[in-house]
Amino acid sequence: MAQAGAEGGPAAENSAPVAAGEAGPEQAVPEEAGEVEELVSLQLVEESRLEKLFEEQRRDIGLDDEVTLKTFFKLFDMWIQLYRLNKCAEVLEDVVPICRRRGGNLHIQGVQALAFTVWKQSKFRLAAELFHEIEELVGSSSALCENMGHTYSSLGDYPEASKYFRRALTCIDEEEKLGKKAGDRAGILLGLGLIEDRQGNFEKALAAVRESQRLFRLRCGTKPSSLVAKAGMSIAKILLKLADKEADPQKRTEMEEEAVERELENVTLFEVTCGDDSPLTATALRGLGEAYERRKRLPEAIKAYSRSYHLEAIKDAFDLLSIMEVHNSLFRAHLDNVKSGVPLDREAFRSYLPTVEQALTRVKAMVQDANAGAYYKAAGELMAFAEDYAGAVMLLGEAVRLFGTETMDKVQGLIDTCTDLKAFCEKQLAAACAGGASSSSARR
Predict the structure, then answer these.
(1) What is the pLDDT along the chain (444 residues), one digit of tens a residue?
(2) What is the rounded CA–CA span in Å between residue 213 and residue 292?
(3) How far is the CA of 207 from the CAs of 150, 202, 211, in angstroms?
(4) Which DSSP symbol is given to 222?
């Protein structure tokens, strides 16, 4: 995310996207740093050091102290990069009121940090309010306009997003003329490209995000960068959309193969820069699965989807929609494999049960409505394929109960499907029980 300095100019270069493969505000990297150093192994060491120092300072001199706050914002840079969103939110609850009371640059830093965090938690409306608070304090800058553009884009307000992205480009031109540190043209181009993508202008979108990635590559030099991967996710996604419309089989194949190539690079870059358990890695793995699936490389698609599913189930900012999407993708890939003549891999379904249990724990902590019921239905179906019939019966029954809270004409088909599969699972349990009883009788 591009950061706004106290005088209204960006204090650091922007990074750009995120969340479900979309662009968005991201943590900044100082221009003076030269090539970007984004190795997760180094970040983990620094995170541990800063956490220890912060806790000592918080205990000994208090949170409302400039030394402690300075350490916290350094730690925040590590946490936000590593997606420690719960940690960020917990401390910011105490830090932001202090920063607002102190005013000046601390006010900006505190509100900006909260905006970064809630953006990554998909609370885009709140993020927009916080960015406007900063705008009232420091005025417009390329960095701030870019962040607001990404936020309005995520809210689906494309005219407003486009307005802020184009305002950001104007600010860059003015900043460069004045010899100031300019904002991030690459991140802005990525944002504009995504707007073109969402409006169906795929050729324009691809051109913009390719240029964005080219600029990110120039910035990072020979070192790995998550920014290159974030642009790469958009490139792969748009290539697959263009391939859908391409009449020439050879060109379509080339687009799909490039999408696979881009997603492989994206996964590798995120693993190195953000960690193999990062939400960004999860998103890239899902994109890789989609690209493999398009090329009919189903075993590889299944492997990518299963890793993505696990990471989605454990990430801080749990997203039921993302869970459902990757679950359905994994299920679909298995069924397509069966259609191609490969026997159903029940052992693979059994291997997914720990991931499903982790997701169930998160869903049970949510409001128990038809949305939760939809996951119980999906999880119950997977358990039936894994031959965990008792678990399937329990989840399918709960899904039926929750679907019953909705208007019947919207959910009757879902209820019927659950009821039929639940009856099948109960028959399997009864048969297994009868078989066990017969065996005991024979032994006697």
Answers:
(1) 554 433 332 233 333 333 333 455 644 333 333 343 677 888 889 999 999 999 999 999 999 999 999 999 999 999 998 889 999 999 999 999 999 999 999 999 999 999 999 999 999 999 999 999 999 998 888 889 999 999 999 999 999 999 999 999 999 998 888 887 767 899 999 999 999 999 999 999 999 999 999 999 999 998 999 999 999 999 999 999 999 999 999 999 999 999 999 999 999 999 999 999 999 999 999 999 999 999 999 999 999 999 999 999 999 889 999 999 999 999 999 999 999 999 999 999 999 999 999 999 999 999 999 999 999 999 999 999 999 999 999 999 999 999 999 998 889 999 999 999 999 999 999 998 876 655 555 555
(2) 22
(3) 18, 9, 6
(4) T
Angle of CA points 300, 305, 310, to nearest 5°: 135
Stated as kind and residue range, the H or E segment containing 10 is strand 10-12
Residues ≥6 apart with Cβ < 8 Å to 315:
83, 279, 282
Q: Are 206 and 238 in contact (CB under 8 A)?
A: yes
Measure CA 243 to chain center.
24
Taking the model in full, what pTM does it have? 0.78
Do the beta carbons of residue 323 and residue 308 sit within 8 Å?
Answer: no
Tokens of 99: 């920063």
| Residue 146, CA distances (Å) to 27, 49, 93, 104 in order | 13, 32, 25, 22
The contacts of residue 85 (CB under 8 Å, 6+ apart) are 79, 117, 120, 121, 316, 317
38 in Cβ contact with 224 (< 8 Å)? yes
How is residue 173 written in tokens?
Answer: 């031109």
Structure tokens belonging to residue 412 = 């009757």
Residue 274 CB coordination number (10 Å): 21
Pairing of β 3-4 and β 10-12: antiparallel
Q: Cα–Cα distance between 266 and 272 in angstroms, integer?
A: 10
| 375 DSSP assignment | H
